[in-house]
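Sample entry (336 residues):
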Amino acid sequence: MAPMTILIFLVLGIIFLFIFLYFVPVNLWITAIFSGVKVGLFELVFMRIRKVPPGIIVRELITANKAGLQASTSDLETHYLAGGNVPSVIKALISAEKANINLSFKQATAIDLAGRDVLDAVQMSVNPKVITTPKVAAVAADGIQLIATARVTVRANIQQLVGGAGEDTILARVGEGIVTSIGSADTHKEVLENPDKISKLVLQRGLDAGTAFEILSIDIADVDVGVNIGAKLQTDQASADLKVAEAKAEERRAMAVAEEQEMKAKSQEARAKVILAEAEVPKAIADAFRSGNLGLMDYYKMQNIQADTSMRDSISGTPSTGKGSQGKGSDTKGLK
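Predicted structure, serialized as tokens:
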């Protein structure tokens, strides 16, 4: 029974020792003491309780102390709890100090918490970055399209990293400047002869205002000639004008056809009225016979005149209307 009890106490002692060493990182405390960093043992225990890894804090504090930076465990722990990247901030501060860049611990932590890579920003301040713009198409005053590609050399502006615009804004502004520069040229040949005019005009516009970068140079990498936009627009306009003219001509033709049909209808209406009027002539003659206003000799005289008229029409080739025969038949009926 005694050996079993000793074994149990031994196992419990080992477990207690691991728990103690976990919450009381003696090795980190000894490392910090020999590195010249003042860190209390209970302070490391409290880090464990606050779920802050003491290894990261102590190592980065030793690194900062060896580099001559002023940092405390409280500052590093606060930044870690805020969701920051403590190793990246310390490396950025060391790089900035070596490159004579004015960067404080407060600025570095603010940049890191803003979502930017503070170490990359410091490296970009030392080693500028070249950004290649996509192809930008613009049209000169003579209607020729030019397609340009530029390379923008930028350097990170540490003071504007928090709240400053990013690379997309730089590319958009450079593209706008290229379009404006090409559009202000009288001919496309001027741009092809002196492409540096584009970069000069773009640089004068101060495109890096309000951004997290400082534009060092803008170089035109390539300029290609595109299509003749002016001629194409003129062709499209001429085609549109032709279609409008054709539509107006078709409208006038339709109106003329409608007017012709209307005149034919009016002619038919007038002819119908004439026929109706001619139909009333025999009745009028019969009434004249009955009332005594027309004698037999007058009737024959009228018949002779109609016969002469019909003979002249036949000689001249004019078709006879047949009024005489119609009138005679009607008169005969009237006489009866």
